[in-house]
C-alpha cells in the first residue's frame, strides 16, 4: 500500500524550499522501501507517519547520508560522547578519524565483541541501525545476513531493512 507519495517525501526533504532534482531522485529511490516499512509496522495514522518520517529524515540527513558520519573534531567528541572523551586531551588522538572513533565509542557495546566491530556495525540505513546485536536482530527480521554484509543497509532496495521483507 502506498501511504506516502514521492512528491510529498521530496517536499519534506527540501522544506522550507522547493524540492530540487536531488531531493526528487532520493525520494524516488526510498519511497517504496519506506512505504513497505510503514505498511508492515502499522505506521498508518497521521501522527505515526509524521513521527516515522521525521525520524528517518533526521537520522539520515534528509536521506542524504545512510552511513553514520563520525568525522568529529575533538570539541565535538567531548560534547557528543563525554564519558569516553572527558577532556580535549583525550579526544585529540581521535579527532577526524571516523574508524578509530567508531571502534572506541561502540567497541564492547551493543554486541560489538571483536576488534573493528564498532566501525563495521556503525549506524547505517535511513534509521541508523547501530551495533552488531541490532544488525543481527534486523537480519532475522528481513531474512538477510547483515552480519556478513552490513553495507546492505545503505541500499534503497526492497530487501533493505526498512522493508522488513
Write the layout of secondary structure elements.
Elements: H1 6-14, H2 21-40, H3 46-59, H4 74-80, H5 88-92, H6 98-106, H7 117-120, H8 132-142
Helix pairs in contact: 1-2
What would you note in describing this structure?
The chain is mainly α. It is 48% helix and 0% strand. The chain contains eight helices and no strands. Helix 1 packs across helix 2.
Low-pLDDT regions: 158-165
- The backbone outline, from C-alpha atoms, is globular
What is the terminal separation in angstroms? 14 Å
Biggest sheet record: none
What fraction strand? under 5%
- Residue share in helix: 40-55%
Q: Gyration radius, to the nearest Å?
A: 17 Å
Mean pLDDT: 92
- In DSSP terms (H or I, runs of 4 or more residues), the helix count works out at 8
Give me the secondary-structure category: mainly alpha
Report the order of strands and helices.
Answer: HHHHHHHH
Count of extended strands: 0
Key terms:
single chain; about 160 residues; globular
Please sum up the structure shown:
It is built from 8 helices and no strands. By secondary structure, it is mainly α. It is globular.
Amino acid at each position: 500500500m502506498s501511504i506516502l507519495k514521492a512528491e510529498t517525501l521530496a517536499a519534506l526533504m527540501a522544506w522550507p524550499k522547493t524540492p530540487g532534482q536531488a531531493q526528487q531522485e532520493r525520494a524516488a529511490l526510498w519511497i517504496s522501501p519506506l512505504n513497505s516499512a510503514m505498511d508492515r509496522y502499522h505506521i498508518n495514522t497521521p501522527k505515526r507517519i509524521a513521527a516515522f518520517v521525521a525520524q528517518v529524515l533526521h537520522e539520515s540527513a534528509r536521506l542524504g547520508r545512510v552511513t553514520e558520519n563520525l568525522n568529529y573534531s575533538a570539541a565535538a567528541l567531548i560534547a557528543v560522547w563525554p564519558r569516553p572523551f572527558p577532556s580535549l586531551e583525550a579526544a585529540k588522538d581521535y579527532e577526524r578519524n571516523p574508524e578509530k572513533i567508531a571502534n572506541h565509542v561502540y567497541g564492547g557495546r551493543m554486541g560489538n565483541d571483536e576488534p573493528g566491530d564498532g566501525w563495521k556495525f556503525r549506524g547505517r540505513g535511513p534509521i541508523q541501525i547501530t551495533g552488531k546485536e541490532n544488525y543481527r536482530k534486523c537480519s532475522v527480521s528481513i531474512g538477510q545476513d547483515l552480519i556478513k554484509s552490513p553495507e546492505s543497509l545503505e541500499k534503497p532496495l526492497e530487501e533493505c531493512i526498512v522493508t522488513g521483507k
